[in-house]
Write a structure and sequence with these properties.
The complex is a heterotrimer. By secondary structure, chain A is mostly helical. Chain A has eight helices and two strands, in the order βααααααααβ. The two termini of chain A are 16 Å apart. Chain C is elongated, with a radius of gyration of 17 Å. Classes of the chains: A mainly alpha, B alpha/beta, C alpha+beta. Chains in contact: A-B, B-C. At the A-B interface, helix 2, helix 4 and helix 7 of A face helix 17 of B.
Chain lengths: 219, 360, 62
């Protein structure tokens, strides 16, 4: 008799936005890195326009990323309990306890990982921080486009206000620096997901494709 | 002194009618006005008196005066001195000492509300403003006194507009631009130095229409500072094509490739350098093979800095590091830490919680 | 004994003040001061050496 059951954790919008984010982050990083430091000396041909192409792809991916991030933020208020905003900002005692227990577990000071069918509290907080960084990347990107195009209503709304708070050199530098922060997050995120999948044996890695996690009879 | 009209004074200096009309057309072009305004400009310069101009120097290097004075042939730059009546200019005026001070005093009292005040150089404000004294008066006091009675205030050069180089970190004399002292409308002809042709155009506009041209949010005239240099640069096709100079003197440099990788700040600079260029259309920094340093932007000495690098450095890490080196270093450290964690976890893992559930 | 002050000295770059003590039609003592300071040396400290010339050329625009 099977004593495991599966539970639907990650809704379709959560998974779709996750993968749009993941793919666009890779595309944005590669093209963005080229835009900041062109690493490829183009062949001597008038029909190959690498910088123009990289910028075009970067902007298309940026718009996809923007839509995905904004939609996910909206979904934090209308999605199921595992997608809600309170999973990312630990306000209840239960979440704060979960946060501490997770930290102790990752620090080899606790034997068992605390049970959290959705995100652990640490994961939630890390995603909040990374979403703030995503929003900065979006705003600074629009600010840079605003300067490059000498105006534009969408760019102004998206990031024109940032130019009044910070100088342009700093905006550009942080836009670049935060790419590295996102990659550090990606390294930790992929590792922890892999690590937790092995520890919890609940199909965690598959869940971001299927939406389902599997739990034993105690749940 | 300035009873004869601008046209009459030009004729007296030997400028032909043909050159005069060419000048009117060029002014219209620089101002971004249609050719139908040329007769209006010509008429204004024919009929109107030369406006009195008082040119003050504060914490400056005189580069903007030199920009105006540099003329290898009778040209727009030289004509400036003929279309205005320059009543006070410390670099070229004959009187000095008390006579010079009297000259200034006379103009600002007798022609109160009827002179144009041009300012070159920033105003130091640290320690009560003692870092610039002229004739025993502080620059800040002179600025306020002359500025209050002028019919138009024009700041020339980055120093007068935004504080410029003396205001660069750490700004030891707490220099500020003229607009920060006077408030109100101040035309900021930014640049280091400013382009004399833009200055002439502003004066022509004022004489013709009686108003100052439209200004952007930094007070710079839109006709000269409205377009991004990167979008009008003649090397832009090389940028789009990925052809970059990598080292001074390399093949790309000799072929005139894009200076993006050498730190060109064209993407954040706004001025008409690529179109009207310098020294009467001779050249401009990028054409000559040197990256743009965004000399007309506020705080460019800190913002567009380092000039030979794409991006400013990460604070606290010194000028040799940059975001990529720091980022790569931290990412590598993270990967190593994560690998170590994984190894420790694999080595110390006992039976996991779900192993106890082996009920099936 | 008279004191002579010439400030501003014109037809130069920058700001200069000359004070002189005149006795019997002759100048017996004189002081010359530059009456403006920007601190470009201070501003240069800590910057990339390759950028130095761009700052230093702005010491004088002539």
């Amino acid at each position: 008799m099977a004593t495991t059951h599966r539970e639907y954790i990650w809704e379709i919008p959560v998974r779709i936005t996750h993968w749009i984010n993941a793919i666009s982050i890779v595309v944005l990083s590669v093209t963005g890195f080229y835009i900041g430091s062109p690493f490829w000396d183009s062949p001597n041909s008038d029909s190959v326009l690498p910088m123009a192409l990289m910028r075009f792809i970067h902007f298309v991916a940026a718009y996809a990323f923007t839509a995905s991030v904004l939609f996910r933020i909206y979904w934090m208020f209308v999605g199921n309990k595992y997608a809600r905003w309170n999973q990312f900002i630990p306000l209840s005692t239960e979440r704060i306890v979960n946060f501490i227990q997770c930290a102790l577990f990752y620090g080899f000071m606790r034997k068992e990982i605390p049970h959290s069918p959705g995100h652990t509290a640490i994961a939630g907080v890390s995603y909040s921080i990374i979403f703030l960084i995503f929003l900065y990347e979006i705003a600074s990107g629009f600010a840079l486009l605003y300067v490059a195009n000498g105006g534009g209503a969408i760019y102004n709304i998206g990031g024109g206000w940032l130019l009044r708070i910070m100088d342009l050199g700093t905006i550009r530098m942080l836009h670049h620096v935060f790419m590295w922060v996102i990659w550090i997050f990606v390294i930790i995120h992929v590792y922890i997901s892999w690590h937790n999948d092995i520890i919890e044996r609940n199909g965690l890695m598959s869940s971001i494709f299927s939406g389902y996690k599997f739990f034993g009879k105690h749940h | 002194m300035s009873e004869e009209s601008i046209y009459e004074s030009l004729l007296r200096k030997g400028v032909s009618r043909r050159d005069f009309l060419k000048f009117c057309s060029t002014s219209a072009m620089i101002l971004g006005l249609s050719s139908s305004t040329v007769p209006k400009i010509a008429e204004a310069l024919e009929k109107k008196e030369r406006p009195s101009v008082v040119w003050l120097h504060f914490s400056e290097c005189t580069g903007d005066s030199e920009s105006v004075l540099r003329a290898s042939k009778p040209s727009i730059a030289q004509v400036i001195l003929d279309i205005v009546s320059l009543e006070y200019h410390e670099t070229i005026m004959a009187p000095s000492g008390h006579a010079a001070e009297k000259s200034l005093k006379d103009i600002i009292t007798k022609k109160k509300g009827k002179y144009i005040a041009v300012y070159e150089g920033a105003v130091p404000t640290a320690d009560g403003g003692v870092y610039c004294f002229i004739g025993g008066h502080k620059a800040i006091d002179i600025c306020k006194e002359v500025g209050s009675g002028a019919m138009a205030n024009i700041a020339v050069g980055n120093c007068a507009c935004f504080g410029g180089i003396p205001a660069a970190n750490p700004n030891p004399t707490k220099c500020v631009g003229i607009k920060d002292i006077l408030g109100g409308t101040v035309v900021n002809l930014a640049g280091c130095p400013m382009n004399a042709e833009n200055f002439t155009a502003v004066v022509v506009h004022f004489v013709t229409f009686g108003t100052l041209p439209a200004l952007d949010k930094h007070g710079r005239p839109l006709f000269a500072y409205g377009k991004c240099i990167h979008n009008n640069c003649e090397r832009r096709p090389h940028f789009d094509q990925g052809q970059f100079v990598r080292q001074w003197g390399d093949m790309g440099h000799r072929l005139g490739w894009c200076l993006y990788e050498m730190g060109c700040k064209g993407p954040m600079a706004y001025q008409n350098c690529p179109t009207i260029r310098w020294n009467e259309g001779t050249s401009w920094p990028v054409q000559a093979g040197h990256p743009c340093i965004a000399c007309a932007s506020p705080n460019n000495w800190d913002d567009a800095y380092p000039f030979y690098k794409r991006m400013e450095g990460v604070p606290g890490v010194g000028w040799q590091a940059n975001a990529d080196k720091v980022g790569l270093g931290i990412a590598a450290a993270t990967a190593a830490a994560v690998a170590a964690h994984g190894i420790i976890r694999a080595a110390t893992r006992g039976k996991g919680p779900s192993d106890k559930e082996e009920g099936h | 004994m008279a004191k002579l002050v010439v400030d501003p000295v014109t037809r130069i770059e920058g700001h200069m003040r000359v004070e002189a003590k005149v006795e019997g039609g002759k100048i017996v003592d004189a002081w010359v001061s530059g009456t403006m300071w920007r601190g470009i040396e201070t501003i240069l400290k800590g910057r990339d050496p390759r950028d130095a010339w761009l700052f230093v050329s702005r010491v004088c625009g002539v």
